[in-house]
């Protein structure tokens, strides 16, 4: 009888440990499925437009993206004319900017990752997916919630100790049926909300059901926002690693 009494707490601890491990794995798997669906399991090529809305003005940009896994990304600004030709490159943990107007290549330091890309509410880290929401964070399934009448998993992401990331915490709402990121909240290291990203206009694009529009709203400036529209996207297109180079930055159109 004494042995059974001692076994009960041990069994309970094992059950809790297994349950916690399964929940973490499930949450990570959900986030990975959502990320793969949006970024492509291997690669993607997309064209997008961006509208930066401010109280006194509105600014429009167009750009093209190439991505390959989490290691490589290239972004080419195609409009307006005064910004056309600017290129951003990410290779592993490094990021560069090529400005053809001044023929200058700049390596962007980690301190610039949280700054707005091209003056928008979209950060440099967002633009080139510098951090991996799958590998750089620990994932916890918080519960379930409806977002725009969609049944969603509510997942908390906390950075791992060794991760060099911009955010102190990320909260995601991912649909159960199609693994769409309907809502994402980004928090700083003190857990203050910095911005919210909302997905709109769910449609078939690139052969997949995806939101074609994303709206980014800063928490401290609710009267401004950035809206990104996906015009076209192709997934898992063969792209050579050598494409993601400083030489390519100067040549691509």
From TrEMBL:
Signal peptide: 1-24
Domain (Uncharacterized protein TP-0789) ranges: 70-251
CDD domains given in the database record: LolA_like
UniProt keyword terms in alphabetical order: Lipoprotein, Signal
Protein name according to UniProt: Outer membrane lipoprotein-sorting protein
UniProt source species: Carboxylicivirga linearis
């Amino acid at each position: 009888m004494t042995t059974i009494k001692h076994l009960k707490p041990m069994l309970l601890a094992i059950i809790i440990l297994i349950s916690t491990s399964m929940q973490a794995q499930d949450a990570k798997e959900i986030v990975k499925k959502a990320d793969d669906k949006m970024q492509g399991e291997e690669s993607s090529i997309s064209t997008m437009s961006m509208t930066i809305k401010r109280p006194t003005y509105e600014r429009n940009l167009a750009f093209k993206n190439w991505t390959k896994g989490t290691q490589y990304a290239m972004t080419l600004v195609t409009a307006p004319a005064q910004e056309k030709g600017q290129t951003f490159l990410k290779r592993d943990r490094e990021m560069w900017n090529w400005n053809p107007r001044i023929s200058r290549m700049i390596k962007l330091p980690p301190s610039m990752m949280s700054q707005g890309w091209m003056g928008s509410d979209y950060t440099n880290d967002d633009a080139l997916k510098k951090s991996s929401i799958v590998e750089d964070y620990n994932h916890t399934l918080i519960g379930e919630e409806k977002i725009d009448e969609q049944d969603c998993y509510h997942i908390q992401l906390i950075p791992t100790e060794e991760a060099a990331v911009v955010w102190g915490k990320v909260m995601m709402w991912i649909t159960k049926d199609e693994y769409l990121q309907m809502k994402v909240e980004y928090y700083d290291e003190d857990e203050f909300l910095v911005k919210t990203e909302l997905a709109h206009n769910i449609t078939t694009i690139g052969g997949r059901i995806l939101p074609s529009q994303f709206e980014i709203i800063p928490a401290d400036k609710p009267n401004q926002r950035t809206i990104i529209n996906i015009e076209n996207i192709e997934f898992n297109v063969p792209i050579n690693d050598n494409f993601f180079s400083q030489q390519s930055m100067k040549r691509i159109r």
